[in-house]
Amino acid sequence: MRDAISGGETALYYEDILARSLGSKYRLGIIETESFDVTAFEIDTPEDLEAAESWVAAAGNNWLRSS
C-alpha cells in the first residue's frame, strides 16, 4: 500500500495492489457481485460496518437462505 501511495497510485482498489504483491505465484480471483443475486458489502469504515450489521439484523434468518 505504501509503495502505491508514494507512487501516486491512489485510485487503485486494494484488490489490485494485493494481486500485484502476490505476483504470479498465487492467483487472485475477483468477481463483480452486482452480476449475481447477492447482497455484498465493502466494509472499510466504521459506518460501513454499522450499515452491514443493520442489514443483517433486519434480514433476520432470511439472509442465510439457500437457492
General description of the model:
The protein is built from three helices and no strands. It is 42% helix and 0% strand. The model has no long low-confidence stretch (mean pLDDT 79).
Give a nutshell description of this structure.
The chain is an all-alpha fold and 67 residues long. It contains 3 helices and no strands.
Percent of residues in helical segments?
Answer: 40-55%
Secondary-structure element pattern, one letter each: HHH
Instruction: From the alpha carbons, calculate the radius of gyration and give it in angstroms.
Output: 16 Å
Tell me the β content.
Answer: under 5%
Q: Provide the structure class.
A: mainly alpha
Give the termini separation: 38 Å
Low-confidence stretches: none
Instruction: Specify the overall morphology.
Output: elongated
Number of strands: 0
Mean pLDDT metric: 79
Largest sheet: none
Number of helices: 3
